[in-house]
Design brief:
The strands form two sheets. This protein has a three-stranded parallel sheet with strand order 1-2-3, covered by helices on one side. The longest helix has 20 residues. The chain is mostly helical. Helix content is 48%, strand content 6%. Helix 10 crosses helix 13.
Length: 348
């Protein structure tokens, strides 16, 4: 089984192709895909093209309790993502005794699964063939499947909430102890400036802005950093929308917001379904604008009566009115303008 979103980074099509290679050898085995997403139609077409409609099902499960029951109906859980954080589906599957199968080059997953100990890791360099081999290995051996299932269930206990909570508490207490002994009087001026800049970003712009300030290996200009700080928490920029709409940005590993600020708007890309770049420029006659129109909207546009223009691609009926309140725009704008005034000597 697979459980998750049907989107390009999940690479569910690899699982379908791998299963198609071996399904005829194991007529009693079936594949169930639980989820939904933008690639659902594509995956259905792939299933038809491999002529395995009778063996593969696409289902949705609306409740957590229902999903737990589904785990008990299956033996193997597969995750074909190129990258992950700490995926919930694979951990839930392991906790319910399912044998996990994934790729050895998938970050996150390869920290949870130890190959041939509590699951199987296929070779990410030859994904379809190696995944088919791994699936066949676990499908044809009841003994191996039982061993891996038992060890998978035991190994996942390290993600128990009590264990994780204790680690967080220990980390926070350690940080507090370091703050208590921090010598502000004897630290270098550059260290103090760095510390103050970081705190300012955390206080006024949130985590995303503080992240971008620390991109020391990125050749970013001061304006790029300011624009990023202004838009990083904006509901008019949707990371998921941008990456799913413009696949090549994700494939190149580029930061979606930086891409939009520097290139995307020039190509007519939209930052979200609630802001149409081309229509905004056209309606308010901003053809001579030489920087990102969403930045212009936040700094000046709304003050003179401009409104975001919807793209017409609606995910929900309410999306036409899902825009930030004016007081929130003013808060963001004031923060960036204050930042510009107080940080002329920053070493960018």
């Amino acid at each position: 089984m697979y459980s998750g979103r049907f989107s390009f980074e999940k690479r569910v099509d690899l699982l379908i192709e791998a299963f198609a290679k071996i399904h005829s050898k194991y007529p009693l085995w079936t594949l169930t895909l639980f989820g939904e997403g933008p690639l659902e139609s594509y995956l259905k077409s792939a299933i038809e093209s491999f002529n395995i409609k009778e063996k593969v099902s696409i289902l949705r499960e609306s409740s957590v309790e229902g999903m737990y029951r589904r785990y008990l109906e299956h033996h193997v859980i597969v995750l074909t993502s190129k990258y992950e954080g700490c995926p919930l589906s694979i951990r839930e599957g392991m906790a319910n005794g399912l044998v996990p199968v994934a790729f050895d080059d998938c970050s996150g997953i390869n920290e949870i699964i130890v190959n041939k100990e509590n699951g199987l890791l296929a070779d990410g360099r030859d994904p379809v063939v190696s995944l088919a081999v791994a699936l066949e290995e676990v499908m044809c051996s009841d003994t191996l499947r039982t061993q891996l299932s038992s060890k998978a269930k035991a190994s996942i206990s390290r993600f128990d909430p009590d264990v994780i909570n204790k680690k967080w508490i220990d980390m926070v207490m350690s940080a507090l102890r370091q703050v208590e002994v921090f010598d502000y009087n004897n630290c270098s001026n550059s260290s103090l400036r760095h510390f103050r800049k970081y705190l300012y970003a955390l206080k006024y712009q949130g985590k995303h802005a503080s992240d971008i300030l620390e991109f020391s290996n990125e050749p970013l200009t001061k304006l790029e950093r300011l624009y990023y700080a202004l838009l990083s928490e904006s509901p008019l920029f949707d990371n998921r929308f941008y990456l799913e709409t413009y696949y090549h940005v994700k494939e190149k590993g580029e930061d979606p917001l930086l891409h939009y600020i520097n290139e995307g708007w020039l190509l007519g890309y939209n930052p979200s379904e609630n802001f149409c770049t081309v229509d905004y420029i056209s309606k308010y006659q901003l053809h001579d604008l030489n920087y990102c129109p969403l930045v212009y909207f936040y700094l000046f546009g709304w003050l003179i009566g401009h409104h975001p223009i919807h793209t017409g691609i609606s995910r929900s009926p309410a999306s036409f009115t899902t825009v930030p309140l004016r007081k929130e725009w003013q808060k963001d704008t004031d923060a960036v303008l204050k930042w510009m005034q107080n940080n002329e000597e920053w070493e960018i």
